[in-house]
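Translate sequence into C-alpha cells.
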Amino acid sequence: MSYSIKPFIRTDKAVKKNGRYPIYFMIRLDKTLIKIPSGKEVAERHWDKKTCKVRGGGACQLLNTFLEKKLSGFNEFILTQENLEKEINKGNIKDFFRKRKPKQTFYQFWDDQVSLWQKIKRESTLMGYKYTLQILKLFSPNLNYNDINLDFIERFDNYLRTERNNSDGGVFGRHKCLKAMIKIAIRKGVMTKNPYVDFKVRGAEGKRMFLRLEEVKKLMGLYFSEDEIKLQCVSEMFLFACFTGLRFSDIIQLRWSNIDLLRRTLEIDMMKTNKPIQLPLIEPAMKILNQRKSQSGEASEEVFKTICNQYVNRRLKDLMKKAEIQKQITFHCARHTFACNHIESQTHMLVLKDLLGHSNVAQTEIYAKTLNVQMINAMKALENQYSNKLNTPPHKLRVVNE
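Result follows.
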C-alpha cells in the first residue's frame, strides 16, 4: 500500500465573503483520491502552492502548526494501522480526521446481541458466544467493524490453530459464532460485507463413536450392586438414549407427562431445535420406564434425576470398563448408536431422519458415511457375484474323436 498527503486550498469552490478559501487535505491511497476538509481557511494570496504552507507570521504560523500536527498525526495513524495489520480505507481515514468514533464497537454489539438472546437461547449456546468473544478480545483487544475483513479472518484462524492449538472442532466452533454475529450485524445495517464469503471454515471430521448391537446387549446384561446405584442410573439414562436417540439435554428435561405408557410413545420438544418429536418406544426402553415409574409416578416429576453431563461422561468410563467395552464413549455416542444401528437394520433414511428430528436428510446421511454402508454393500454385491461364479459347475469339454 502507498499513500501521500498534502494540504491545499479549494479554489474550485466559491470564495467566502471574507475573501478566504477552505483548506483541505488531499490524500492518495494507492489509486484512490480522498479530499478531507481541515476546518480552516486562508486568503489565496497567503497560500504558498510550492510548500503547501501559509505565508506570513503570527496567526499564519499558528495555522501552519495546526496543519503540521494534522499531517504528523495522520502519518502516525497509518504507521499504527500497518503495525497492527489493520485495514486502511476511506472510511477509517475520514473517521481519523473527524475524530469520529463508531457509536458502538463490534464487541459492544456482540454483548448487546447476547443480552437479547438471554430468554430465547439455551445457556450452552450463550456460553459458546461469550467464550468466543473472550478469545477474540485476546486476539484483537480493539476491534472495529472496518477491521473485520478476509485478512482478519485468516489471521484469527491461524491464531486459533497455532497459538491456541485448538482442534478442528474447536476452531469450527469459534468461526461459527463469529460468522453468525457478522451476519446479524449485516442484517441490522452496521456492516456491509461478510468476509466469510471468501473463507471456507474447515470443519471437524471426527470419528463418530458408537456401540454395536452386541455391545449394547452387554450393557443391558450388567448387574449392579447396592453400592453402584448411581452407576446404574447412568447406565439406564445411556441405554434409554440408545433406544430413543434423544440427546442429553432432552433426557434430563424428560417428564412423565411426556410419556404415554399405554400407547408406548414419547412426545417432547427437542431442546436444541425447539422442534416437537414423537417417538414410538421399543420394549427395552419400556422396561427402563416401568422400573423408574414404580419409584416415582407424578406427571411433573423428572424421569431421570438431573445430573451434569460431565459427571455422566466420567461415569460412562466406569460403565464401559465394567462391560469390558474398549471404546472412548461419551453420552452423545448413544445418539450415534441409535442412528448407526438403525442403518445396519436397514431403516429407510427418510424414516431415520424423522426419528432423529433432523431438518434434512443430509444430516442423517452422515451416519451412513460413518458406517461406510455403500462401500460395504458394494463389496458384498461383488462378493456375491464371485460366489455365483464359483458355484457354477464348470463347462464340460466336448471331446472330438479323430
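Note: The chain has three domains: 3-98, 106-198, 213-376.
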